[in-house]
Each structure stands twice: as structure tokens, then as C-alpha cells.
Design goal:
heterodimer, A: mainly beta, seven-stranded mixed beta sheet, 0% helix, B: mainly beta, globular
């Protein structure tokens, strides 16, 4: 069974940093691309970033480019999102998502449980 | 950026009825349109990928159709567990991957 267990959310002041983690199990982690998607409370879904299986292809939404960094450690079966210079508009539930195939398909067939990031003074 | 517009925003139906949800793209996305279901307090769940392919474990009452800019998710006979929010997503032209704003399917 595929499991994506997230950690690292919480309350942070504007301008500060936070790192999210997503621990994967139940599949061959290093064979799949991974993504981060967020959802402001009561709002819709917004793709944040994606990374290919070998970190060779990385992409970001314009809203986070230059502030957020996606990375992965295939030896630890883990995905990360380093979030710097956080803004109140970054407040959201953040989900990690597994790509559907070993190519970067941008189809999310499994999701983490979500973690809430609140940016407020 | 491809903008996806879903309609209606809210759909009120009864169990057993047929639901038709629409997603319109601002430019041609070919067949690369995906549908998700999200229930309160839960992560989204993949339903349909590339217009009409049901994901593993998705019941046959869910079907997708369309191409280019106009797509439809149909639920042939609503079950109580189908009342949720549905999102479409395009994967044709990215980054960025974009989602529609969602359609809330509520019990009438």
C-alpha cells in the first residue's frame, strides 16, 4: 500500500522559513516523480512544485519561484519543500503527491494527508 | 497559463440522479485533462485521467469525456458517498499545472 506521511507544518511568522517533509513507503520511491500541491483554507487546489525521479527536472509555480525549493532524498524515500521568505498568502494545507508513472506525467495518483502551514505574526 | 473554468459552481442533486460536471480550458489541452474528488478534511482522490481513463478502484458510474477545450465528468447514478467537491486539472502545458476552481456536488 502506498503511504505518504507528511510532517513539518505549523505557525510561522512572515519572512521566516519552514521545511516540509513527505516520507514515502509502499512503492519504489526513486522511480517516480513527486509534487507539492497546496490549498488555502476553504479554497481550491494550487500546484506548487514538482521534481522528477532523479531531480533532473524541477519546476515551480510563479507564486513560489525563488522562495521555495523542492528536493528529494531517494536513499531516505523522502520528499522535501524548503519554504523561505514566507508570506501570509502562503497559508494553506500542503499536500505531497506521487506521480502516476515513472515519467513526469503530472497526474497525482496518491496524496499525503496534508499539513497546515500558517503564516502570521 | 491554461485557465480551467468549472461549471456549475454548485450542483444540487438527489441520490440516484445523474450528475454532469463541466470543465472548460482557455486553450487546447488535447486529451490531457484529469479529474479529482475531494471530501471534507481529506486529500483529493484521483478519479479520471486523460479525459476518460478511470483510475484504479474507481467505480464504473464515473466517466469522463471531451477533448480540446471542453470536458465533462458524468456520474451516472449518484451514491451518497459521491457528494463532494470535484476538481479538473490540465497536464498538457506545464509548468504550471493548473486546476479548475471546483464544483461542489451537494445533496438536494
Amino acid at each position: 500500500e502506498v503511504q505518504l506521511v507528511q510532517s513539518g507544518g505549523g505557525l510561522v511568522q512572515p519572512g521566516r522559513s519552514l521545511r516540509l517533509s513527505c516520507a514515502a513507503s509502499g512503492f519504489t520511491f526513486d522511480a517516480y516523480a513527486m509534487h507539492w500541491v497546496r490549498q488555502a483554507p476553504g479554497k481550491g487546489l494550487e500546484w506548487v512544485s514538482g521534481i522528477s525521479w532523479n531531480s533532473g527536472r524541477i519546476a515551480y509555480a510563479d507564486s513560489v519561484k525563488g522562495r521555495f525549493t523542492i528536493s528529494r532524498d531517494n536513499a531516505k524515500n523522502s520528499l522535501y519543500l524548503q519554504m523561505n521568505s514566507l508570506r501570509p498568502e502562503d497559508t494553506a494545507f500542503y499536500y505531497c503527491g506521487k506521480d502516476f508513472q515513472n515519467l513526469v506525467t503530472a497526474i497525482f495518483d496518491n496524496w499525503g494527508q496534508g499539513t497546515l502551514v500558517t503564516v502570521s505574526s | 497559463e491554461v485557465v480551467l473554468t468549472q461549471s456549475p459552481a454548485t450542483l444540487s442533486l438527489s441520490p440516484g440522479e445523474r450528475a454532469t460536471l463541466s470543465c472548460r480550458a482557455s486553450q487546447n489541452v488535447g486529451p490531457y485533462l484529469v479529474w479529482y474528488q475531494q471530501k471534507p478534511g481529506q486529500a483529493p482522490r484521483l478519479l479520471i485521467y486523460d479525459t476518460s481513463n478511470r483510475a484504479t478502484g474507481i467505480p464504473a458510474r464515473f466517466s469522463g469525456s471531451g477533448s480540446g477545450t471542453d470536458f465533462t465528468l458524468t456520474i451516472s447514478s449518484l451514491e451518497p458517498e459521491d457528494f463532494a467537491v470535484y476538481y479538473c486539472q490540465q497536464r498538457s502545458n506545464w509548468p504550471p499545472i493548473t486546476f479548475g476552481q471546483g464544483t461542489r456536488l451537494e445533496i438536494k
